[in-house]
Amino acid sequence: MSYCRQEGKDRIIFATKEDHETPSSAELVADDPDDPYEEQGLILPNGDINWNCPCLGGMASGPCGEQFKSAFSCFHYSTEEIKGSDCVDQFRAMQECMQKYPDLYPQEDENDEKSSKDLEAASVEASAAKEEKGSS
């Protein structure tokens, strides 16, 4: 004979062998893409950014969260030929913010610093090329 009992915050359910022999009559409901509790990836079905995605590692909610969101949104929605080349200012603002919190956002080591400078130089070049293209 199966039964339930409550012990404090716990609910204990005892089921018999006969209970488990009967096939379940539960019906599975199709996934609702608009369910806010359903785990989603980085990009939601409607194309928006899922700021709650664990893949962002909390970047969207830290002290530089607004700068991160601005830069990431700009990149995501960028339609430039060199994707994100119109987002240099937003990424620079995010980088400046992160430099104010070195404990939360550790700086790169010397080897990574060189690649960071190369990336920044490429961004500046892309920005200059965009301005030159726009003025001709």
Automatic annotation (TrEMBL):
Which InterPro entries does its entry note?
CHCH, CHCHD4
For this UniProt record, the keywords arranged alphabetically read as follows: Disulfide bond, Mitochondrion, Oxidoreductase, Protein transport, Redox-active center, Translocation, Transport
Against Pfam families, the record matches this protein to: CHCH (PF06747)
Q: Which organism is it from?
A: Cnemophilus loriae
Query: Where is the major localization of this protein?
Result: mitochondrion
GO molecular-function term, one example from the UniProt record: protein-disulfide reductase activity
List the PROSITE patterns: CHCH
Q: Where is the composition biased (Acidic residues)?
A: 29-38
- Provide the CHCH domain boundaries: 64-100
Positions of the region Disordered?
17-39, 102-136
Q: Which PANTHER family match?
A: COILED-COIL-HELIX-COILED-COIL-HELIX DOMAIN CONTAINING 4 (PTHR21622)
* Cell compartments where the protein resides: Mitochondrion intermembrane space
Q: What is this protein called?
A: MIA40 protein
GO CC terms, sorted: mitochondrial intermembrane space
One GO biological process term: mitochondrial respiratory chain complex assembly
Do the record's keywords include Protein transport? yes
Query: Origin, by domain of life?
Result: Eukaryota
